[in-house]
Structure formats: C-alpha cells, structure tokens
Amino acid sequence: MDYKELNKTTVLEYVANVDSVADYFATDELEVVEVGDGNLNYVYKIASLNDSKKALILKQAVPYLRCVGEEFLLSRDRMRFEIRALQKFYSIFPSFVPKVYHANEDMSLVVMEYLDEHIIMRKGLMEGVVYKNFSEHISTYMAATLFYTSLLHISSGEKRALVEKFNGNAELCKLTEDLVFSFPFMEHETNDNENVKENHDAQKLFLDMEFKERVLGLKYKFMTQSDALIHGDLHTGSIMINEKETYVIDPEFAFVGPFGFDIGALLANLANSYVHHSVVTKDEEYKTWLLQTIREVLEKFSEKFLSFWSESKNSALVVDGFLDGAALQKYKEKFVLNILRESVGFAGCKMGRRVYGVAGVAEIRGIKDSKLRRRAESMALSVAKAFVMGYDKIQNCDEVVEIIKNAG
Amino acid sequence: MDYKELNKTTVLEYVANVDSVADYFATDELEVVEVGDGNLNYVYKIASLNDSKKALILKQAVPYLRCVGEEFLLSRDRMRFEIRALQKFYSIFPSFVPKVYHANEDMSLVVMEYLDEHIIMRKGLMEGVVYKNFSEHISTYMAATLFYTSLLHISSGEKRALVEKFNGNAELCKLTEDLVFSFPFMEHETNDNENVKENHDAQKLFLDMEFKERVLGLKYKFMTQSDALIHGDLHTGSIMINEKETYVIDPEFAFVGPFGFDIGALLANLANSYVHHSVVTKDEEYKTWLLQTIREVLEKFSEKFLSFWSESKNSALVVDGFLDGAALQKYKEKFVLNILRESVGFAGCKMGRRVYGVAGVAEIRGIKDSKLRRRAESMALSVAKAFVMGYDKIQNCDEVVEIIKNAG
Questions:
Q1: What is the complex's ipTM, to 2 decimals?
Q2: Which of A121, A136, B137, B228 would bridge B146 by S-S if both were Cys, CB 3.0 to 4.6 A apart?
Q3: Contact status of A204 with chain B (Cβ, < 8 Å)
Q4: How far is A48 from chain B (nearest CA, A)?
C-alpha cells in the first residue's frame, strides 16, 4: 500500500477496512478527534459514541518534523521501528505496553490501545504524585525486555534477526549520538545559547576535558555495544502512569544497544525530578520517596534480571556446564553490577545534556526564576559529573542514591 | 541465476560467459586443475596453456562440509560473506588482498587472482623462514581494514550498512562462539579427547573457573562489540606469503566485530610458532625473529592506526572541536591501548582453544613425540592463561613479548 497522509475523515475510511478495529468497535458509531502534542506525528483518538469506554489511538508519522513545518524533513521510517518495538515488547510483557490492534509500516501508522486513565509521568512527578507501584512495574518491564532480547536468553541467530529488524533506525540513533553525547557539551548552535552565553558553569563544562573524554567513552558504547533491544528514549515523558498501572510508550528510538541506556535514561529523569523538588518545592517527603524509588528501581531491576537468568539454564553466551554453580553465580552478579555501572554512566550523560542541550526538561529549564534555575542546573551538573566520572567504580545502588542526595 | 555445483568441465563453460575472465585470458587456450585442500570448498586453477604466468582461481562453496560428506550440511552462504569481505578489504588496501575478477553470490563462487609464488604462512613459519616485510605488511593491512571500517572514519549510517551486509554470517560466527570460546575449555565431544583423558593439565584447565569466567567476558565482547569489519579468522593459515609479498585470504568468517579479534588471532598464531620452535627446533635465532616480529606487528599496528586517525578530523565518534588537541591525543592513545589489551585477551582464548579443542594446529598438535607435544601444550597454556588473566592490565607491547618469552 502506498503512503498517504490521513486526516480526520480519511482515518475513519481507513479503519473501516481494518478487521481488528472493526471487530473492536462492532456496530458502534465512531468519532475522530486529533489529540497528542503534535511535535512529530499525527495522533487521532477514534472513539465510540455508543460506549464512552471504547476508544483506540491511531498514530501516523509524516515525513517531516510537524512542529517546524513540511520543509524540515524527518523520515517517517521512525514509525517502522516504533511498530516493531511495540510488538516485540508487548510479546515479552504485555502488562506494560499498549496493545497494538493494527500496524501498517508502509502507511507509517499504528492503531493501539487508548490509555484514558493515565497521564505522562513527568507531569505527575512535577506535581508531586506518589506512584507506589512504579518501581515494581518499571523494573519488571526493563528486566524482561532487556533480558529476553539478549544473548542470555535468545540464540545468536535470533539476536542477529533482531539486529536486522532494527539496524535501519539510523536517523534517530544519530539524533542521540549528537544531541545526548556531543553537542550539549560543546559550543553548538543547537544549544540553549541564551543561557550558555557568559555562563561560567557552561564554559567550565565545555572545557572539562576529563569529563568529556569519559562522555566519549559512553558514546562509543552507545554506538557499538549490542546487548539487547532497548527502548532508546525511556525518560519519564515516555511513560503513561496512574497509581495502579504503568505503560511505556513511544519506542521509536528502539534499536539493539547497550543494556544500561534505558535504565540510565530513567535514572537521569528521576534524578532531575529530585533536583526540581530540591530547588522548587523543597518537599522533603516527596524527595525521600523519589530517592527510595530510585533505589528500588535499580535493586529490583538487578533482582529480576538475575531471577530471569536463573530460569535459563543454557544460553548462547553460557553453554550449560561451562562454569560450576558458584562461578556462574559470581559471573552473573558481576554482569549485573556492570549493567548498573553503565546505567549510571549513561544517566550522567542524559542529565548533563538536559542542562544546556537542545531538549531541555520542564523540571529544570521550565523553572521561571533564573536564580532557582541556575541552582537546579548546577545541582544537575554536579550529579551528572559524579555519575560520568565515577560510574565504573560504583559498587551498589546505595552509592548511586548517595550521589544524588549529596548534590542537594 | 540458480545455484549449480560446477566441475572441471562446467567451470570452463561458466567462465567463457564472464567478460572479465574472458578479457584476462583473451584468446588463450585454457586448462582447469582442481587444487586446494578440499575441506570446505571446491578450488579450481584456470590456467592459460599459452602463457604459464597467466592463471586465475575459481572457488565455489558447496552446501555441505566437503571433507566429511554431503550429509554434513554447512550452508554455502559463507561464500556470500567471503565475496563481500574480499571486495571490501580490496577496496581499502588492494596490496594485501587477492583481486576479485568475478563474483556470483547465487552461485556461491568467486574468481580471483592466482597467487602462484606464495605459500601458506603457517608452513613457512614451521620451516623457519624469515619474512622481513611481514610485520610492515600485516600491520598496515590490519590498521587500514579496522580503522577504515570503524566509526572513527565512516558515518554511523555507513556503519549500519556494513552491519547489514555481514549480519547474516550467523553460522560461522556460531562456530567461533562454540569452538574458540566454549568447547575447548570444558568436557566436550568435539575436543581431542584421546589427549584430554587422564590428562592432569586438561582437567586443571577445565576446572579453572577464574580463567573461564574471563574467557566468557571475551566471548561476550566477540558476540556484542561491533567495532569494525573484521576478517574473523586471521591465523597464519589465512595468509599467503613470500619474502616480498603478503596476502590475506579466506575471509569467510568476516563480520562487524571487535577490533582486537584479528590482531589477537595473529598474535596467538605467532606465539604458537614460538612455542613450536622452543620445543622442537630450539632455533634461538628464529625465536628471536619471532618475538621481534610480534613486537613490530603490535607497535606498527598502533602507530598506523593512530596515523590514519590523525588524517580524519571529524568522525561519527568525535565531532570536530569536541576535545582540545591534548585531550584528543590522550583519548586516542587510550583507545589504541584498549585495542592492544583486547587483542591480547582474544589471543589468549585463541591459543587456549588450539590445545584440546577440535581444530589443532600443526605447530602443537602436529608434534609426533608425545613428551614434546605435552611440553608445547603446557607452554601454550601458560601463555594463554597469562594473556586471558592479565590482558586488561597490559601497558605496552614489551609486556606482551615478555609473557611469551618467559613461558619458554
């Protein structure tokens, strides 16, 4: 099928021919509403007029950056990888991924479950909402998606098939290479240059060669280390949440990359939330919950990853009988500690990039009072620096929490 | 074109329709002789009867392991990757790779330059032949093929295209995973079990969990670290040589893997040759040349790799201006030291696997006197162990040479 950009009217015509969607709505009358932030894609809510509980989302990519205009080209190929990742992650652990009802790579569109009772987690965190189940959910999601797409579980042939499916996601990986690992740490036109100008901290960061050498080491890992299928952009804006449920959305950056990148993205965003509350709300109780959540996410990730591993007796990596029981256990613990370390390293880059780089986060760049904003930036930078400089010496989750706590 | 197994007669019919071959031989009368060891593929020499200097090689893969029989299946896909690698490596540095005149992936065949004045290097080394130009040639070959297929030179998009071209080489990569990194270090039916039985050294090796844990770490790097396009099997049996020229052949194991694997394979095989001469010929002069060659290969590799790097101002990894001159230089030196370290680690696995694993080498397994053979095995194992246990602490090439020298 040739690509065609849909609108509110043609969306209805399109889904009328899709069996799974027709089955879902049966004979209901439907209405279509455009929703979503509209930065990149068109997002439509298709809702039943007969039953207010029944709705699906249709998301279509366009071959340009929508928020800028048709002249700013961005390949709609990204939807190909979003579709494949949604389906793969759902097949591993359906509880935490919206269900796909229909996908069409040629049309760059996907029809999926509508999450009407959930909000973007970043918003909830800024408002100081406590999500009791979050650490349990997200640690399961991360441990499962990473473990079950790695050579600790699948065969080398299956791993190669996975690499083949996502290898083409070059454009979005390049965005991460540039906008996470490079430009935010040097003079660059894409930076928040109003803030960089005559800013002593920014100039100091750009000249900190030891820090930048280590960022380069982490960038190299991002570019060459093919551990598992990762989401690729797992910040708190890619999580839909309420007090009961957690969903991970928008995996268009997915590719076979390093274990630690998703965990690091999440850690960085939770730490940024801690920075925000330290500077803005000064809500000690919430800050304590955030630190506890960070510890739980990391600890539970490790436990669950090891627990999945204990069920896989023979793997592409460890042939059954290669190591004795005690040595295998020791190997596994070192392996998971290494994931924790690399997660901390990536978290450092991710926190650093939010300070002066192109894509600021509401928690920091959104602070209106310039003095407070500077304080938040300086706190975020000090955590980023401690993470990047010390990640490979981290021994346990407590040390990670201590670094964040000591910064503010 | 459908696949068809050729024979001496149909080879002539086939090449009669290939322009590049017809041009090469012009109106000469031709004869076909089957050559090669015949383990895996059919290799034919197509020679001019008018001019004894004019000849080409036609190599065709068959879908089974030829030396065992048609019932032992081995996909002829391997020729697809050999063709692609020959062409890629030739395009980077033609002096050290046989020229391809014609290739046909569907027919699993390649027609290439006939190297009539060269012998397999392993044979020459066993006979004690000195190759004065070897370290210069092979260090250039390795530095060029590795550097120019890495993110230090090509874009991330070009790198992904390279991954796509070689990602399918699953069968041969799996052979390496099993036969280099796993089975030779545990009880396994593929091992040289006559020798393993009641052999104290073998039992000790199989129970050395610290060693095996580190082998597993190197296996993981082999399986997940996509630095550059590597030959994948660069032992001295994959090198055709004389005192003037050096050619690297048989790259059917090629894939995008770790920098250190080819260098490690070569280092292991040169070290095995040193072991052989220490135990069998006791030729001190030759042993000295071998050690000097090892040092030169490693040192010249590093120098040339750095020299290629100095010509690439901007790369996918290091955006121009990201580091200042001094920091960049320091980063590059650390980067190359890390390649050296990983090479030593891989060399340790490669030496270890030759002792009891399925594919023995003439230098050690070929020793008829069982007492001498045991001595050679024990020497090879002690180098393998020192390499694997200490590779990540190596500071320079001298330390590598010292380890080999101290073993015998």
A1: 0.95
A2: B228
A3: no
A4: 44
